[in-house]
Structures are given as structure tokens and as C-alpha cells.
Amino acid sequence: MADNNPLQIIEQALGITLPGAYVTFLRQQQLMEEGRLMTDLVYLYGLAELAGQNTLYEVQHYLPGYLTIGDDSGGQAICLHCAATDSTVYITGHGALDTGSLQVLSDNFSDWVAQGYSLDVIRESPDILAFRQSDTWQLRAAWQALHLALKKLEAEKSKGMDLKTYLLQKRQLQQEIVTFETLHAGKKYMP
């Protein structure tokens, strides 16, 4: 009877169609019931958990057409798009469920499985890429570079740098920091 098919029950409960490669994987890996730790970090949900986790995090509300299939044991959801033409594997924080925050783990679900469930991001999310172009990111990078230069200078001093050279360079860096912080007062850039 079709009503007892657990795959159809999940699809109806979530209002989605499970991707074909994912359904095949569930059957092959015997995840039709309980989930399993696939690596030391990657936990993939079984059917018994799938609807509950997607409902708990309101995945279909925040990411319509997507399905969270597991997590990284650290607060990030592993997701698939439910379109038949998209087998990309995504990762995003459970608190950042929007398409702009999706980072790509693999362009193909079956390849991701065959390659050992890697959590290495191959393409960053649009939001991260946009942030790296922002004034905030640029200012933060400049501020950090100044403070890193000061830290390196302190390390050089401990290796025997001439005191006069050290004091001159330190004074110059401190003045650059003061100038930078004065010029950008009130702007968000400090981590």
C-alpha cells in the first residue's frame, strides 16, 4: 500500500520530492530507519529522523525546495536541493538557512559519498563572497595587518633587533594605528 511507503510519508510531510540519488543512497546504506555517523564528523539522518530535523529547523520555510540530510556534528546542516537537475551538496549553519549562506561541498551527491563525505568547502556562499568585497572586510583586513606588523616587530625585538631601530619602527606603527583608528572612528571593522 502506497500510504505505508516511508519515502512517500516523508515527502508528504515535508512537501518535497526526495532527490533520486539520495533515495538510492538511503536504500544502499540501509538508512531507511536510523541515521549513522559516516565519518568522525558527518552524521546523516535516517528516515526516522529526516522529517523531525527538517521540521525542527524549519528548513522548508527558510530554504524552500531544500532538504537537510545530516549535519557536521558542529551546528551546520548538510543540505540537498530537491530539484531533479541539482545534485549539489551544500553546508550552512542551522541558524543561517538561506540560499545566500549555502556553501558548496560537492557538485554531485554521489561523488561526495564516493569521496568520503568531505566537509571541505569547494565554493563559498554568495553572502561570504559579497562580504569579502565590503568596506567592513577591507577595513578589518587593514586593521589586522597593522596589528600583525606590530606583533611581528615585538618578535623581532626578542630576537635581538637594535633598540633604536625597534623604537623607531614601533613609534611609526603605533602612529599608523592611531591614524587609522581616528580616520575610521565609528565604522565597524574590529573583530
From TrEMBL:
Database matches in InterPro entries: Knr4/Smi1-like_dom (IPR018958), Knr4/Smi1-like_sf (IPR037883)
SMART domains per UniProt: SMI1_KNR4
Segments forming domain Knr4/Smi1-like: 1-115
UniProt-recorded name of the protein: SMI1/KNR4 family protein
